[in-house]
Amino acid sequence: MANGNETVVYFSEQVVVLCSCALSFVGSSLIIVTFIAWSDLRTTPRRLLVFLSVSDWLSAVSYAYGVWSVFRTNSVDCVVQGAVSTFANTSSFFWTVAIAIYLYVFIVRSSQRVADSLVLVFHLVSWGVPLIITVAAVCLNKIGYDASEVSVGWCWVSINAPDRVLWMLLTGKIWEFLAYLTLPVLYILIKRHIHIAHAALSEYRPILANRPPSHSFSSMADRKLTFIPIIFIVLRIWSTVRFILLLAGSAARQSPVLVTLHGIGNTSQGAANCILFVLFTKPMRTRLCTALCYCCSRCRAEGQYSHDASHRLLPNQDASTQRGGGGGGGGGGEEDDGGSSSRAGNQR
To answer: DSSP 3-state assignment of 143?
Structure first.
């Protein structure tokens, strides 16, 4: 399976991870495109989701290039790919936590003004910190070929760096650990607040004529809040396990099953976000279905129109062909003259 510290990435693993990258690419693109297409759905939380999707889109593209290439040396494209994936992956951690903080302030603290004022801070931190870390790592020659020690074919922290564990922490793992701790706490607090609000509302529900419209929205949000930290941990835990096995010096980190799960987890965030925030969101799902049905009906209508038009044009084309051929140019002229003489006689 491996020679020394090098982990072999099998072709089957490449195919699976590349498919995961493709799904994440499509999912992130769909989130971005729907945000651009439908202006009435451009809420601040969805805008933050778009910034997260940009990071996931970059991650999917850079990881796909790395998995496809399976680098063996510290080449220029290896360093570039490693730098892009490091920046995008770290930025994804920050944006994921930023969305949780925004929802906490907005829902629990009930302050949209304060929540909106944090957006600028989110930009500075979520783009600035990963950029600084990545630039420092590249300038100090810390990014390069890592023999897939804690990756799946792509480049990350160079295996030749004597302090590579420290840089693995700085360029991803420490932020991953913080996200493991922060996300569950924030979402538990948000869910607790929603449950308390439901309990308070239930005292008045019997005397209300209709169920409050906010109840269905809160229930839907409550279900989603359960999945967000769970999905994040389920996807990211495999890379964490391989990192811990690296620290322990265990060869189990080179297991094909663990390597495959690591590759899928690191590249599926965009697809998971698309499923949760687009396909499982009724307004978005309804609009997508409507747009898809419209496109299909339009394509069928255009195809039918082209088919009918071709049948209408064929007889005329045959007639003109016969006039242009057969009797030659003179025959065509005689036929026209005869028709003209006949019309002239009728007029007289």
So the answer is: strand
Token couple for 283? 């307004």
Tokens of 240: 């964490």
d(CA 100, CA 170): 22
DSSP-based helix, strand, coil % in the chain, nearest 5: 80, 0, 20
CA separation for the pair 302, 296 (Å, rounded): 10
Domain boundary among 255, 278, 301: 278
Residue 244 lies in a domain: yes
Same domain, 167 and 265: yes
Instruction: Please tell me whether residues 272 and 284 are part of one structural domain.
Output: no
Tell me, yes or no, whether 46 and 68 share the same domain: yes
Angle of helix 213-247 versus helix 76-103 axis, rounded to 10? 140
Q: Render pLDDT for 242-284 as a digit per residue (tens, 0 to 9).
A: 999 999 988 888 899 999 999 999 999 999 999 888 888 777 7
Do residues 276 and 228 lie in contact, with contact meaning Cβ atoms separated by under 8 Å?
yes
Query: In this model, does residue 221 exceed pLDDT 70?
Result: no
Each residue's pLDDT tens digit, 34-92: 888 888 778 888 899 999 999 999 999 999 999 998 888 888 999 999 999 999 999 99
CATH of the domain at 252: 1.20.1070.10
Residue-wise DSSP of 163-230: THHHHHIIIIIHHHHHHHHHHHHHHHHHHHHHHHHHHHHHTTGGG-SS--HHHHHHHHHHHHHHHHHH
Query: Residue 153's domain spans which residues?
Result: 11-278
